[in-house]
Structures
1.
Amino acid sequence: MEQQSKKYKVGIVGATGMVGQRFIAIIANHPWFDVASVAASSKSSGKTYEEAVAGRWMMKDPLPESVRELVVLSAESDIRKIADEVDFIFCAVTMSREETSALEEAFAKAECPVISANSAHRNTPDVPMIIPEINPQHLKIIESQRKRLGVERGFITVKSNCSIQSYVPALHPLREKFGLEKVLVCTYQAISGAGKTFETWPEMIENVIPYIGGDEEKKSEREPLKIWGNLEENSIVPASLPDISAQCVRVAALDGHMAAVHMSLREKTSKENIIGLWREYEGLPQKLNLPSAPRQFLHYFDEQDRPQTKLDCMLENGMAISLGRLREDSQYDYKFIGLSHNTLRGAAGGAVLTAELLCAEGYISGGQKAICASLQ
């Protein structure tokens, strides 16, 4: 019981949507985190969480008992109340960019750390956009952000767009070792990325739509450059290379974003060297043995028909990246296929892993006993 009381108390803002529900499902059995507060729009506030999601619970597992009777608070009106109840929040609201930006900054100024699944602050120069295995060093910018906000404990971090999770992790070790000049990518994205199921979006059955709104392609081209950027004074300065051209397509899959990638390297190397580098690569989450970290971050399949969305998107609880079909290309140096789970690694799961990293590195204060017990 003593260890349980030392867990981090977590708030989920935007708890009734698909990503918010995914947070609920993940944290239900988390060794470090307990859901202590849930918040949503005024339509749901005042209801129990069970009442708020009645008839629209979209997860495969049943609604956890631990959250059924939690009273849903107002995401906009109860900021101070939520901040006083939790050690940090996950934010996954469905609001305009301006409203989301203001809401997250209000939580940070209330001395509540924010781990965001939203896009509003991805371009804010002193807000780190984290893929934990790739750019944990960007967390250092938090101190500059705190000074700008005039806070001691609060801050905002964001996760990147789910579209890039299937290829940026594979490109990262190659960029570090060989240099990366140019990338052409086409992503084939599941409908859960739009917060939909086949029941709510029957038009997608047996269909492909060659357009995803919300500047998806621009995000796919620009966000990797911030992730690979350098810390300079009070901001993260995006990298200038590689040049990235992206197309994003919606396909009739429930979960799993796939990418067909073409790449040109500055330094030539062999197929065997690339595969070896992928299989050997590990990031800080693996070294720290964080609870949500996949044991092997990058999995390469030798079979010609892998990875497959249905077979492989849940690899290592949906937190690993699946790769395959690496081969030489007539226009670029190499091409390959990548796959990631878009609402786990690409959204809620990636945010939970970021929260674990923030806790382990001391950026969030709270359940230290839970960490010590988990890592022993």
2.
Amino acid sequence: MNNQIIDIFRRVKAASRTLGSMSDNERSDVLMSLADAVDASHEVLLRANESDLERMERSNPLYDRLQLTPARLEAIASDIRHIAKLPSPVGEVIEERTLPNDLQLRRVRVPFGVVGVIYEARPNVTFDVFSLCFKSGNACLLKGGADASASNEAIVSLIHEVLRGKCIDCDVVALLPSTHEATAELLNAVGYVDVCIPRGGRRLIDFVRDNASVPVIETGAGVVSAYFDKDADLKIGIDIVTNAKTRRVSVCNALDTLLIHRERLSELPQLCSRLAEKNVEIHADEESLHILKGQYPAHLLKESDENTYSTEWMDYKMGLKTVGSVDEAIDHITRFGSGHSECIITDNPATGARFQNEVDAACVYVNAPTSFTDGGQFGLGAEIGISTQKLGPRGPMGLREICTYRYFINGNGQTRP
């Protein structure tokens, strides 16, 4: 084992215990100061980010995720202030009762302790993870990708500067080297790391799950579908499909597959009209391809293949599939979905309710785009990830989702017979 990395683990573990003695007001004050520091440090942060961007091709779908701009930094500062103002879940009494023997039992929300996060080219995640962890009383170990190394180093340096100014142990947050060795050490940091959360594509998530000795919460990978039902409103459908696909193509809640009821195929050119304006490449099955030929740019039309509907595109590309019923749509999602977010567009309340009850995903929408699957949009301030698993937290993970609980039992001398 790498002694330098193990020393980081030890220091972060020790620092995590100091967070328990801080009040929520003290933690909020630190985050408000961090938000002010972000506003005052645009030049430094953008310069570091530019050095990362210079090493990545603009055509890379991850370029948009990697890029920081003044507007994005302003949004990050706003998110940090929002988190600071949220009530902390730490100390919340989930359950309280008196047992027949007069023991007073309370189930109380407490931090995990040390949260490890492995993520790719998204420097905003560094701010999000620290803010959520700090507010909920957790220390964090960050393992960012090499693509964002300069940005992450500048961000953590800024966080440490704020912490020193408040006389708080800087080891409550640590950035590990952007190496494969550091990833392996983090995944096997038993006794130091209480939970590890991967944020990235399917390959990263699978690797972390398959190789970790510490507990893992799976997040992120999204093969996302929208089903345009036979009873759907066309205008609403156009708006939803366009927003879900093109708002930001590189994020996990972006639309990957459009399913359309066979009875509405004649309206498919209208449904996809604004996608053409955004140069979205459509990989279509035989029926929908036949309808779109001559009514959608030919250079953006492709035939679907065996990989189309299992692909998380993260690009201006989309699968298209014709189905004959809501049953077929649900069967398709069951086969190809990743449990992230799914959507139905319909004016039939019974069909919408059935879709929500039978589709097995963390977030299931009726007449709203999957682009809303986001911690900020759900009122969580930000998110540490979007869990696609069923055990433990599911969907966008905010403050409560990175806490566990303890039972506090108070007696007055009772003994067990």
3.
Amino acid sequence: MRLADQWTDFQLLDTSRGEKLERWGDTLLIRPDPQVLWDTPRGPLWNQAAARYLRSQKGGGRWDNPAMLTTQWEIGYKGLRFSIRPTGFKHTGLFPEQAVNWDLMGELIRRAGRPIKVLNLFAYTGGATLACAAAGASVCHVDASKGMVTWARENAALSGLADRPIRWIVDDCQKFVEREIRRGNRYDGVVMDPPSYGRGPGGELWKLEESIYGLVDLCAGVLGDNPLFFLLNSYTTGLSPAVMEYLLGVTVARRYGGTVASSEIGLPVEATGYNLPCGSTAIWTRG
């Protein structure tokens, strides 16, 4: 497992009974996590949380402190700054475990020794976009949610990256890639972080497991003649790291050679010294 263990403004303090206790800057939050299957003792810090997200049996949920929905603050990671805002869907606007991939992509871009264009699909609030831009790449940031793209632009401004060559696109990711291929626009790196469930170009409902192969195969076609990397993330438990590695192997690696690696990514738990898995990543690189 690759760990995002270089944070100072974020900390996973403890996990127990289907929940995790996190420190976001100076604010403690309790959020549900389906991976937390153990019933370990809870220390006094659990009683100091500013809010707890409560799941509903009908789906969704709510914060037990509704004021959190109008509260925001900033945290930082290696020069990048992010606005944190608890949402009605338990999220805060950032997946801190992804910092391991931000570091990896940043290093690949800096070592390339040439101009690098990156396409970030399902780009959310822009963690990968900012990391790549800070490393010197030009980035095309694509998300279907106008609100998420606006949030990402705010994060870019907070990070001092507002003047970097970043294209901010509100669009369906599949449709956008199809148009880029027709227009002959190519990229040196692709980042994909698709949701577990979504809607296809025609509005039809789709599950990631049923659609991911076609989506990855399509996006492989937007790479240029000398691509640098293709990174695929998933929070869907049905997609193991080995499955994702296979997907990149039979799509990207089949076209361009190179190597594919995969792993779980996670966060260290302060209270126990163990690590909480938070998703899977597979990455293709040219070398």
4.
Amino acid sequence: MTTAKKIVCLALVLAMACVSVFAQAAPEEAAKTSYKIGICQVVQHPALDAASQGFMDAVKAAMGEDAVSFDYQNASGDPSICTTIVNGFVSANVDLILANATLPLQTAAAATGDIPVLGTSITNYSVALDMPEMGKTTGINVSGASDLAPIDKQAEMIVELFPNVKNVGLLYCSAEPNSIYQIELMEEALTAMGVKFERFAFADSNDIASVTTAACQKCDVIYVPTDNTAASSTETIRNVVEPAKVPVIAGEEGICSGCGVATLSISYYDLGYTTGKMAVKVLNGEDISKMPIEFAETSTKKYNAELCEIYGITAPADYEKI
């Protein structure tokens, strides 16, 4: 073979090799330009609505309006609807699932081990996922932000507003693990302050009125933690506690707006925004299993002016009006 022919053959081989390498590398190098996020919210409620909105605003602010789409669905508190929604997200192979509250988180974690799941409005991830105390990370395809406000400070608020309190009724849904967790923390705090308490648990919204009535008959103050069932039934609770003149201290602002006199609450919009910033990191390749659970940075004392007036309560100067 002549030298010229050898050169031509070598050039052809090199050209074919380059084409082959480019064909193999091209799919890996192609950057994804659009993402789909499924949002499952357990019920419609001002606090949860604010968290979902904060989440979407944070993602759009970082990635642009056209780079991401949201499939935002509400489970109306129904586990079967929640399962249908989440399974739909999994079938559609969305890029990420936002689970707004405990039931959607549990459902999403059970439905997929591959799609990243971020929780928001979750009090304690270990309790919600029925896992051993995990520290800062879950080690699985789940992370998110916690809405746990300082329970000890909420207990101090009860004594601050009602220094002569004799018995605190702890009103919560027994079907919500994170509510039970908050009640246990409140019991520890009240015990440390020498304040008596009694649990009043309802199974679902059907027995809230009767259980609240029992609490009013035995207690002079009621504490309601961050509880999704209570949040969707504040009118029912108010219709019992107001005629009985038994004030409610609430775990979050939405419940307080409906039936409480005061709360030490976080901003759920800010909590959702924090979760949204976490979502951007996940979509950009960060390993969610190594992503620490984040918490609200601040909490604020707030009061319900209407109910405080009805009960004859004067809120201290450092309380903000809802």
